[in-house]
Design a protein that fits this description.
By secondary structure, the chain is an all-beta fold. It contains no helices and eleven strands.
Amino acid sequence: QVQLVESGGGLVQAGGSLTLSCAASGRTFSTYVLGWFRQAPGKEREFVAGITWSGGRTYYADSVKGRFTISRDNAKNTLYLQMNSLKPEDTAVYHCAADSTHRSTIRVVAYEYDYWGQGTQVTVSS
């Protein structure tokens, strides 16, 4: 069992930066693929970024590529999302998620992930 808790969201002006963190409990955290998803009001939850268990490979949605960076520290059981050059369309609730099945394959659909955090709100003003 893994529990995930996000933090670091807030209000930022367009062009600004935020770093989200996701603290995990559970001894098997380091073996899971981890991802960030986001959900804006009235929209479906969408994939943002994913990282393999070792951190050796990452994958990003086209909408955030070059602006966001996903990373993990398995010793600290923490996942990060560094977000730069934020745009109003990045406004959403951001969730971290863990996939206990695919250690080296990053899935982009929400149903592939077993564990979810409660989310943290990111609001980007224009």
